[in-house]
Amino acid sequence: MSAEGAQPGTVRPGGRTARVRATVLRAVGDILAERGFAHLDLSDVARRADVGKTTVYRRWGSVTALVADLLMDMAEQSSPRARTGSLLGDLKANARLVQRTLTDPRQGPLFKAVIAAATCDARTAEALHHFYDIRIREWAPCVRQAVDRGELPEGTDAHEVIRAVSAPLYYRLLASGDPLDEAAADRAAEAAAAAAKAGAYVKDRKDEKIERDA
């Protein structure tokens, strides 16, 4: 897609434009963390970022475009996966990264706000799905490497294993309110590893072929 045909907020800028984008996205994140999606306003973002309203309106055009660009930036800036040499070590590193993110004083409320917005806004939901797809793809190789080492059965669905690690942590954040600490992270990783070793995530060979051909 050319720059002219791209949706607002999706072109990767450089130089001064990159600095403006970083400042604006920081303001977006602050507002989401402090007040939630319902209070996200283009004029307020411009004021907080100390940039002209015209710049924000021309570049992004809507609050959903701002959120989509913020999620893209977060995916680009997030920490690379760990390489510990063992499945359990890698999954624990993943779980602890998720735990630290969700309990961070800024990131935790920000994710809650975005997830809440995604339930009623299609573009925000699409951006959130894309964010998690990037993160799952980043971590999936640790599962495939475990298969190669003989730790897991052939045909294990790497993406499902990574989802299984973070799902209990998001449940604690959004539903149960139970403590979201390192112990919870480690238990989530241990449970996912045990289930994977038992073959719970071995996918149907037909599904495996479809994914390989895609």
UniProtKB/TrEMBL annotation:
Q: Does Transferase show up as a keyword for this record?
A: no
Where does the source fall among the domains of life? Bacteria
Kindly state which keywords UniProt assigns to this record, in alphabetical order: DNA-binding, Transcription, Transcription regulation
Q: Which residues bind DNA?
A: 41-60
- Record domain HTH tetR-type: where: 18-78
Query: What's one Pfam family here?
Result: TetR_N
Q: Any coiled-coil ranges, and where?
A: none
Q: Which Gene3D superfamilies match?
A: Homeodomain-like (1.10.10.60), Tetracycline Repressor, domain 2 (1.10.357.10)
This chain's protein is named TetR/AcrR family transcriptional regulator
State the organism named in the record: Actinomadura alba
Taxonomy, top ranks, is: Bacteria, Bacillati, Actinomycetota, Actinomycetes, Streptosporangiales
